[in-house]
Amino acid sequence: MTPSPVAARAQELGLPVIKADKIDAEAAAAIAAAAPEVAAIVAYGALIPASALTLPTHGWINLHFSLLPAWRGAAPVQHSVINGDQITGASTFLLEKGLDTGPVYGTMTESIRPTDTSAALLDRLSHSGAILLAQTIDGLGAGALSGVPNRVRSRWPPSSHSKTDTWLGANPPWPSTAASGASPANPEHGPCWPDSVSNSGRC
């Protein structure tokens, strides 16, 4: 079995790696034995069993490449490009039984360029999303974040938006966000969680 980049890096650092095709009873027992404070999950492509959701102290934090609840489920980046969305982004949220329905901890936005392919857009989102995921985990560890319900309405960033914005919790506690290539989002121009999502994924 070829290790994933995460597994390969963990092995380089001498960290234990649990290898399993799915989270069955054996894998769940191994996770429980590790007593994780939080579990990060990205593009897993399967559901975590309900019995395993509470194993980490702070749960499983998923990095999803859309502004939830737009484009829940598989292939969110491809759907954004196919449907001509002008802005997309990534969200970190607490995994629960429903499909991408858990409370949202943070988002970052990214303009979709006229020449973007889904691969090019995903490449940008993966880099800025990794920063968002790390900030989210740091915020949870510091007790500075609480999730926002996945169905709250706000507004899209202005149409002149041309760079990445990051939003974390009610009051972003990371003044250094701008140094990472992002800037704290203005609450007036916050990410969009529509009450209902049209076929285009916009509010």
Q: Give the strand order of the largest sheet, numbering strands 1, 2, ... along the chain.
A: 1-2-3-4-5-6
What portion of residues is helical?
10-25%
Using only C-alpha atoms, the radius of gyration works out to 17 Å
Q: What quaternary form is this?
A: single chain
Given helix and strand content, the structural type is alpha/beta
Low-confidence stretches: 152-163, 171-203
Q: What kind of sheet is the major sheet?
A: 6 strands, mixed
What is the terminal separation in angstroms? 43 Å
Shape: globular
Annotation, overall tally of beta strands: 6
- Estimated share of beta-strand residues: 15-25%
- SSE ordering: HHEEHEEHEE
Summarize the structure.
With 203 residues, this protein is an alpha/beta fold. 24% of the residues lie in helices and 15% in strands.
Give an overview of the whole structure.
24% of the residues lie in helices and 15% in strands. The chain is α/β, with parallel strands linked by helices. It has a six-stranded mixed sheet. Helix 3 crosses helix 4. The longest helix has 24 residues, at 118-141. It is globular. The model is unreliable at 152-163 and 171-203 (pLDDT under 50).
